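Our consortium's second objective concerns turning raw sequence data into structural hypotheses that experimental partners can test. To show how far this objective has progressed, the report includes one record in full. It was chosen at random from the queue rather than selected for favorable results. The single chain below, 322 residues long, was entered without modification.
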Amino acid sequence: MRGIHVIIGAALLASCSSAPREEAPRAEVDADWPSIPADAVFGQPSAIDIDSHGHVFVLHRAGREWEEPFTTEPIAEDTVFMFSQDGQLLARWGAGQFIMPHGLSVDAEDDIWITDVAREQVLRFSHDGEEELVMGVRGESGEDGNHFGRPADVAFLGDRVLVADGYVNTRVALFDREGKYLGEWGGPGEDAGELDVPHAVSTDGERVYVADRENARISVFSTEGEPLGQWRGLERGHTYSVKPLGGGWVLAVEGRDMLDRTGAMVRVYRPDGTVERSFDLALEGEGASLGHDLALDSAGRAYMIDVYGNRVIRFGIDRAQE
C-alpha cells in the first residue's frame, strides 16, 4: 500500500507541476525610468515609496542576496536612493547602516521608516538620512513590545505606526511615533484575523490591508484590528504587497503562484474583494522576476519592485473606477 501511495503522490505532483502559468495582459512599462548613474552600486531592490514632494525612495541591497544564516556585516554601499519624478537620482544614503533591509515607508512628515530583518529592527530616518529612532533589539528575535521577528513593512494610521511582523512572527504590531508599544493584531493560522508571513501592510484610513503572503490572500481589518475579510482574488498566487487606490479599490502584486513559481502578477481589486483585472509584469523565465513591493504617485502611476529582475518599474494604471 505504501508503494501505491508513493506512485499516486508522484503522479499528482507531476500533474500539478505541468499546470500552465496564468496568462494575463502585459502592462505598458516606462522603459526610461529610472536613470541609474554608471557609478552607482544598485541591485536586489526590495521596497519603494513616495514622499509628499513626489520624490521616489527606493531601498535596495547593493547586490547582497538573501542567504541564511544572515551575515552580521553591514552593507558598505548606499542602500537608499531618492529619485525625481523624471527618474534622476537626487540623493543616496544608508551606507554601513543595514544588513538585510526589507521594507521602506514614508510617513506624513516625510520621515523614512526602514525594516531590517537581519538586525530585527525598525528604524526611522529624517528625509536626508539622519537616524532618529531605532525600535527593537539588534540581532535579537522575540515577540513583545521590544522585539521583532524579522519585521517586514510599516504603515501609518493617524499617529499609530503599524509594523507587519513578519517572517518569524505572525502579527501586526502597533506603536506610537516614538516607539511606544500599543498592542498587536493577528496570530498564526488560516482563520479570519490570523496571519502567516504578514509581508506588507497598508491602509486607506478606513481599512487596513495585510499582504498575508503564505495564506495566499489579502487579510482586511478595521482600523481597530477587527477582521473584515479575506480576499483571495483568483486563488492563483501569494500576495507580496498591497496598496489602496482610493474608494475601496486596491492594487496588489503576487510574487509567486500557487506552485511556487516566481513572477510578478499585478491585480486590481474591487471594494468587495473580487478581482477587476490582472496584468503580468514579469520577465520571461522561471526565477527571472519576483514582484515584491508597490507604490503609487499623485499622477496615478504605479511603481513595482522586481527583486530578481533588479528592476524598479513604473507603469500606468487606469483609475477611472474610482
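The partners drew two points from this record. Helices lie at 2-17. The two ends are 58 Å apart (CA to CA). Both points have been shared with the crystallography group to help prioritize constructs.
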